[in-house]
Amino acid sequence: MALESVPPKYAQLVQALQRRIESGDYPPGSLLPSENQLINEFGVSRPTVVAALRVLREQDWIDSQQGKGRFVRGRPAMTSMEQPRPGQAYLTGPESASDGPAVRCCAQCSKRTVPACRTVESGRSNCSR
After folding, report:
1. pLDDT tens digit string along 45-77?
2. Which segments of 24-129 does DSSP mark as H helices, in order?
3. Which 3 state secondary structure label does DSSP give 14?
4. Measured between alpha carbons, how far is 67 from 48 in angstroms, rounded to an integer?
5. Mean pLDDT on 22-46
6. Roughly what angle, to the nearest 10 degrees, separates helices 9-23 and 35-42?
7. Which residues contact 110 (CB under 8 A, 6 or more apart)?
8. Which DSSP category does 3 fall into?
9. Measured between alpha carbons, how far is 17 from 82 in angstroms, rounded to an integer?
10. Which of 19, 60, 85, 116 has a Cα-to-Cα distance from 41 of 20 to 30 A?
11. Can you spell out the DSSP letters for 17-38?
C-alpha cells in the first residue's frame, strides 16, 4: 500500500494563488482578496491564510501595505527555489568528471570504502574491517 504525500494546506493555497496570478485572474497591481475572503473561499483557517500570504510576500509575488492590503507584484523573475545554489553544478555534473577516488559500499560490512578494499575489488567476502 503506497502512502501518498499531500502538501500542507498553506502550500496548496500558495500554489492556487500563484496559478491565479500567472493566469491573470489577479493582474500585477491589483488588490488581493482580504484574509476573510480567502478564508471563506478556500475553507481554511486564518493562520493558514497568513502563512500562505507570508510565503508569497517572501517570494516577491505580493507586496503588503499596512492599512491598504496586499497587492500583486506578478511572477518574480526567478523564485528563491530556482536560484542556483553553491555546489549545485558539482552535484548535478557527471560523476566521471570528478577527480576524486570512487567510493563504494563494502557488501560485507556495509561501510563506505575506497576501491582498495579487498571485498570490493575481488567480490569475495574477506573484508578487512
Report:
1. 999 999 999 999 999 999 999 999 999 998 887
2. 35-42, 46-58, 88-92, 118-122
3. helix
4. 21
5. 95
6. 110
7. none
8. -
9. 19
10. 60
11. HHHHHHHTSS-TTPBPPPHHHH
